[in-house]
User: Fold this.
Amino acid sequence: MNTKKDIVQKIISDRVHAPKPFGLGHAKANIALVKYWGKRDNELNLPETNSFSITLPLGTTTNITLANNEDIVVLNGTKIENQDQFYTRLVLFLNYFRPDASTHFKVETTNEIPTSAGLASSASGFAALTLALDSFFSMNLDQKMLSILSRLGSGSASRSIFTGFVEWQKGSNKDGSDSFAEKFSHFWPELRIGLSIISSAKKSIDSRKAMDITRKTSSLWKSWPDQVTHDITQIKKAIIEKDFELFGSTAEHNALAMHATMIAASPTILYWLPESIQMMHRIWDARKKGIPVYFTMDAGPNLKLLFLEKDKSIIEQEFPTIQTLVPPQ
Ligand code: 2P0
Assistant:
């Protein structure tokens, strides 16, 4: 069996140098337009399908130094208790890089993503941590290797090593050596993301568990991989041709299809709140009025609106509570 530790060691063993005084990493959050939902390997976060994302302008900055007696984790200026899940997940990841048991790290991490924004921070978090470790041990790894290492922390983190549009290749090797993200060569500077926060409460079921239940029990699971293949082709075509209707409708349909696979799981997994459905109707009503706006949704109740800069003022008038973000190239 390939354990995470074996794989990390294989990648880094001949590249690690003595630690520098500190190692700094920064990575941006991303939102999948064609979703990652379901793993072929739970240990290595190997996905059943490719996925395709857009980078957000908000991210995570992480600084690593050496600590004396135990690992110390500080998030946005507050020391995290070592019983906290955030602490244990981070320390587990650090263990794969720890040169020996007596080496301890202090990890100070700052999240630009407001915790209330309902956005996953594990993607930018594990990518920033990987970049900080790369710098700390002067490894100088290429982006492919950084993407593979980030993936071992959290699947979607593999995409946060890059900016712009990013495709995570599922790969087929058992050890995940061909499962990494790549930057898509085209960009769309006029694209905007509108965050619509319905609830910032902790999700009812974490996405890791939800993916597993979906894959094992959902009657709609069989059709999901073909759906993704189709949608990735369409979304790339839409970007190249700047066809916003194709872009928005593909992303929206893919998100709804992902949620449909969960609704068809046993037990049903439903992340939507009544307000989520209300918001969907408001978006569909806006479209009926001729306003080009679509949405995507992740493993939670919040919607992310997709639109173009030229329609920003009318959309902000129609949806006054959204926060508009400009995706970086
Ligand atoms: C995505 N999500 O593509 C999908 C869409 C949520 C819905 O990636 O278990 O935190 O760490 O590999 O990356 C959330 O899952 O899962 C996610 P792990 P991750 O963005």
About this structure: The chain has nine helices and 13 strands.
